[in-house]
Specification:
By secondary structure, the protein is α/β, with parallel strands linked by helices. It has 10 helices and 7 strands. A 5-stranded parallel β-sheet has the order 3-2-1-4-5, with helices on both faces. The protein has a two-stranded antiparallel sheet with strand order 6-7. Helix 6 crosses helix 9. The termini are far apart.
Amino acid sequence: MSVTGSPKSKPSSSLLLAWQVQNKHCLVIGSGDVALSRIQHLLRANAKITVVTGDNPDKVHSEILVLESEGKFEKVFHRDYLSTDLTIYENIDQTIGDLDQIEPEFYEQIDKQVYDEVFAIVCCCIDDYELSTKIYYQCKYLRLPVNIADKPNLCDFYFGSMINQENLQIMVSTNGKSPRLSRLIKDSIAKEFVGIDLNRAVENLGLIRTRLREQVVIDDDLVSIETRMTWIKTLTDLFSLKQWSELDLIPPSSTPPYDNRNSYVDNIIKYFPEFPPKDFEEFKKAICK
């Protein structure tokens, strides 16, 4: 007798992106623990946050009130949600009737709409299934990306569990299926980097990459771009994360009028297309001088 297993389900995956919401309007509906979590994520991303708390002051998280008193929000409405909240900043100019007509003279107008008039994302964190579902479809009608807390099928995006060290962000997501497991995995990953200043490593390698583009003038053809990318990749792999985090590539004397801020980085760039010493101690001697 043969045993036939159940067919494998198609994996449910999402596209992980670093979404830029800096200086853009974001709406949070709700004022409990989940709303606070969303707000903290958005604050780290330097978003302009509008909060609709609901009309019960006893249910507003105390930390949200502290953030309000500190002026961290664009606006706070201590009332129940209104459908007009989704378009509260909009004053969109509809003079562009044909997308093919969008030329450089329209770019400033469009930037203003993106940053000042339209919500980049909407986060709904209320314990009301019927109203949450309605808000989801209102957002879909208005083409607004929305996250409905604890309802993965009503989410355009998930927050996941985050490791944040300023420039470095690591996200673990289970596509909304098990937030607790996401957190456990995140904590396990974080333990691997105890004692390592990951942000310093990111800063150092970012300085080198930026200066390479500024100083090494090569044609912008694909071969030249590939050469630069391969060089910076190989350079990155020369040393460990801990070693890159121990370097200070900005000289201590790099203040005007003796502005030699880029001198250490330039000492690295001058080896291009070859490479600096591969021994870490020799590398430091050759660069930090």
